[in-house]
From TrEMBL:
InterPro entries on file: His_deacetylse_dom, His_deacetylse_dom_sf, Ureohydrolase_dom_sf
GO molecular function, one term: histone deacetylase activity
Domain of life, per lineage: Eukaryota
Cellular component terms (Gene Ontology): cytoplasm; histone deacetylase complex
Protein name in UniProt: Histone deacetylase 14
Domain Histone deacetylase, first and last residues per copy: 129-266
Keywords: Chromatin regulator, Repressor
UniProt organism field: Artemisia annua (Sweet wormwood)
GO process terms (BP): epigenetic regulation of gene expression
Amino acid sequence: MRCSNKEEISSTAKLVYSVTLCKEEHPECNSRVSAILSALEKNHLTPKFRGSEIIQLQNYKTATFEDIANKHLPPLTKEKYSVLEEGVDGSGETHTTDTTFKESLVSAGAGISLVDYVVISAQVLMHGDVFYDDPDVFFLSIHQDGILPGAGKIDDIGCGNGVGTTLNLPLPQFSGYFAMQTVMYQAIVPCAQRFKPDIILVSAGYDGHVQDPRSKLQFMTLTYYMLASGIKKLAKDLCGGRCVFFLEGGYNLESLSNSVAESFRAIIGEPYNSAEYDSSHFVIMEPYLGARQVVEKIKQLHSL
């Protein structure tokens, strides 16, 4: 079903999503959204086929600073709000403009409690401009080793009161399902269990897929299904199921749309259904030793 923030969301809803378009000239363009919506329709993962089980939010209003501050634990300070409100250059790979923060307020007004939608680069986060010294925000980044110049290093774990609340997982080139499953259950899960979040926000980038032109990782749709399933379970166990996914990268339209569809399937608790698509891709042997070394280093740094 489709609803606005003036209507109640059915208690039978397993997944709620919304759609926002962006500039066509940017790599994260509207054609990605169209491809995803087509895949969801093809896989019967829309309100048309699922009724109140899957809901699309529409016509939601812009949130104010007071709306966010009242629902933010601990309270969002005016200082942090000002930093986020300044806006950023939109020329980078992640689609951001001088109006991004205002647009994020629209998202925050969708009626989902405890959602803090901040569009900000990993580089800024790593240098402590927002959350690096904040003990109340646990920031986790999974990325290809060396792909974030000067940032995302495994030794960057936070500073001051925030030491231990930043977890960087730089995976070796050609890492795939094995590496991701290893770090998920040996690093991410125990860190999350120790932190006990009130809500989990996921910047869901699908450019780690083996078919994507922008990385040298070997994720499959099954990898993203596993990730979404694991995160959903963490949210259920730790914070009452409160979890929000925000679409980030992913530039091969076929792998992106199939991976998002499998993420939807994982969130609503249905079996993985893209084995035929995954089997058509050629992959090389994963760097098992390198992945294990990352996990062992994380365990040492974070006392796991």
